[in-house]
Amino acid sequence: MITISLLFLGCGSETSSAPVVKETYKDGDKVELKSVSGAKLTLLRKNGGFVIEDDEAKVVLIDIFGTFCVPCQEEAPSLMDFQLQNSDEVMLLGLNFFEEVSDEYVVENFAARYNAYYFITNSPKNKKLVETIVQDIQYKGTLQVPFKVLLKAGKYQNVTDVYGTNPENKFYIGKVDLDIIQKDIDKITAQ
Predict the structure, then answer these.
(1) Helix ranges, 57-98 (H)
(2) Cis omega (within 30 of 0) on the bond before 146?
(3) What is the pTM of this model?
(4) How big is the CA angle at 179 (ends 174 and 184), to the nearest 5 degrees?
(5) Which long-range contacts (CB under 8 A, 24 or more apart) does 123-129 make?
(6) Beta bridge partners of 72
(7) What is the pLDDT along the chain (191 residues), one digit of tens a residue?
(8) How far is the C-alpha of 69 from the C-alpha of 80, rounded, in Å?
(9) Contact 176, 162 (CB under 8 A)
(10) Rounded to whole angstroms, how far apart are CA atoms 106 and 138?
(11) How many CB atoms lie within 10 A of CB 33?
């Protein structure tokens, strides 16, 4: 797993008098996104998380990834299959992160190469989205990709902790077996 040393919620420094405040989205904010293939959707900040405007019943699976990331590349084809099998209930939203590349680069070097034709955005807005997510779930570690969260009705859902037994876990980190994600989604949609 590629580890990127980027702290979003850093520990305070003894020499610093003010903590770093990250800009985040507030309830009611709309985030208009365009995929690398030209599709559009709008996220609405609601209930402390995000919903898809005009399709709020869908569960949203947000995958924070990088085109350079080997585990991200390895899981992309199965994420595509997952999205196709679950398109009625789930929207998979890929946020390209940690790199500044063109949409064409993402299409040629990730989507086409790894059959990742789900909604991938390569927007400067991704940084603020990721900072908002990390703050929302109070994630204090170093962000590593792939990193995923599940939301239903704008609320972050508890998901299987693949590295421990935390029943309040709100994220997947690293390459995660899609059977685990499917079981979590089945529990979430049954509620």
Answers:
(1) 70-85
(2) yes
(3) 0.88
(4) 85
(5) 123/33, 123/34, 125/31, 125/33, 126/64, 126/95, 126/96, 126/97, 127/97, 128/23, 128/24, 128/25, 129/25, 129/31, 129/43, 129/50, 129/62, 129/95
(6) none
(7) 333 333 332 222 233 344 556 789 999 999 999 999 999 999 999 999 999 999 999 999 999 999 999 999 999 999 999 999 999 999 999 999 999 999 999 999 999 999 999 999 999 999 999 999 999 999 999 999 999 999 999 999 999 999 888 999 999 999 999 999 999 999 999 88
(8) 17
(9) yes
(10) 29
(11) 20
DSSP 6-61: --SSPPPPTT-SS--------TT-EEEEEBTTS-EEEEEEETTEEEETT-TTSEEE
